[in-house]
Amino acid sequence: MSSDADRHPSLTPEAVVRTCRLAGAALATASVLAIAGFTVLGSVFEYPQILDEPTGDILASYRKHQGTIVTWFSVLALSAALMGPAGIWLGRLAGGTLGRWIAGVGIAAAVVQVAGLQRWVTLVPDISHDALNPGRRADAEDRFELWHNILGKAVGETLGYALTATFTVLIVIALRPTLLPRWLAVLGLASAALIATGVVIPLIEAASLTNFAGYVIWCVWLIAVAVVLVRVRAPADTPAGRADDGRRPHRHQVDS
User: Fold this and answer.
1) Domain residues of the chain, as ranges?
2) pTM of this structure
3) For 183-206, how does the pLDDT look when each residue is reduced to its tens digit (9 = 90+)?
4) What residues are paired with 105 via a beta bridge?
């Protein structure tokens, strides 16, 4: 599936290949870390279902597994943070106004999700400790609910869902003409639509299921897009292309 080199007038062929590989590595790493993080936290902490439990029970479970929980929320935060550099690299590939939008939305998606996730690492340890003191328990639980509503629901989730869905659509628009096969573009748009339903979770509880399904599909989609990106090869008449003993396809191309 060939791409048009004229789409990247500011990048040399070698720079295009390098940028594709960097973006692919960021997307694949983000997906793997997210899958690992949610798997471990679901097993140890029953996350995210535990958020429906009383605050006292959430904090008690948090204290019981605090080291593991802090570690794996840090992993999830790192996974979310990788959307920033991925957006920058994909934006360079797209170029122009679309490229700037991809970079900006990718960075914004990373920032709001890290802001939401980091509370489990920076705020909840002290809150959970204070909750052990009968005289401070009510205040500690109030603080937990306050930060959960602000950083968790409003910032990390609602804004995060909207920005992640938008970021995904922009990537599809940018890569579909040159790199993404039709089925992968459709899969990306479907995952974005399902993720976007998370915005209405406060109004429609069933949206949590469609949102979860969207993220599962999205993680698989990220890995598939990463594979497409890392398989991009340099033209045969460039130094990078000649280094591969003449077997690289002409122009920017994905191996079949």
Assistant:
1) 5-254
2) 0.86
3) 999 999 999 999 999 999 888 888
4) none
